[in-house]
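(Structure overview)
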Amino acid sequence: MNEKKVITGLIMDKNVSFSYVEVCQKYNLSEELLTEMMEHGLFETRNLKKTQFDYFTLHKIQSAQRLQRDLGINMPGVVLVLELLEELERVRNELSILQRHVDEI
């Protein structure tokens, strides 16, 4: 069966950063929600309003927003899910490296 899948996304340059105001506008986030994300440890900053958000932080913010919006997960749960996903990716990368070493033997 040929199923067609539609994939949507946002292409971003990894070297570009966005200001606090730009992030709120770009992702249609309230200042309160962005502050809540920071307070729960989604990203670290000393002065939120002066922060420049890099590609990796923007990706986390976007993922957090989707988890909260689509699945109704509260912010502490969102942070936990994202930490577990990062750990899973790290373990998969390690497994891939180990598998290559085993294949060489």
